[in-house]
Every structure is written in structure tokens, then in C-alpha cells.
Amino acid sequence: MEPTTGDYIVVKAKDQGVQVIGLTRGHDTRFHHTEKLDKNEVLICQFTDHTSAIKIRGKAIVMTKFGTVETDQ
């Protein structure tokens, strides 16, 4: 098994109940993992062979190697 070396993002919740949803890779995109964050919690996410996209619902700060984005509510 080869180590996964996908990019990472950091999500910091600005409100209670921010949802971070991992979406699968392949012909049919599906949800495969969901996390709910409390205010000020931080989650570090990685893109992998199975995760092609990450969806964020709620007010959060998202940090990537390309810069920082704040979601609007």
C-alpha cells in the first residue's frame, strides 16, 4: 500500500454546527464522510484516492496552500 500524499485543507468553524462533507471520486459522486464542528473547532482534511471534493456548510474559515477563504452565511 502506497502512502497517500494528497493536498490538505484546514477548516475552522466560526459558528456552531459547521458541516464538512467528503465527496467520493469516480463516475458517481457520493457523500462518504461527514463531520460537524463546534465554534472554533479546527479540522484538517486531506484529498485522497477516495476523496475528490470537500463541501462545507456554515460559517467557516478554509485555509489551503492557495490562500484563505471565508464562507458567507
Automatic annotation (TrEMBL):
GO BP annotations listed: DNA-templated transcription termination; regulation of DNA-templated transcription
Native organism taxonomy: Bacteria, Bacillati, Bacillota, Bacilli, Bacillales
Classification via InterPro entries: MtrB, Trp_RNA-bd_attenuator-like_dom, Trp_RNA-bd_attenuator_dom
Sequence ranges assigned to domain Tryptophan RNA-binding attenuator protein in this UniProt record: 6-72
Database matches in Pfam families: TrpBP
Keywords carried by this UniProt record: RNA-binding, Transcription, Transcription regulation
Entry superkingdom: Bacteria
The keyword Protein biosynthesis belongs to this UniProt entry's keyword annotation: no
Entry's family note: Belongs to the MtrB family.
GO MF entries: RNA binding
Organism: Paenibacillus nanensis
Claim: Cell cycle is one of the keywords in the record: no
Assembly notes: Oligomer of 11 identical subunits arranged in doughnut-like structure.
Name recorded for this polypeptide: Transcription attenuation protein MtrB
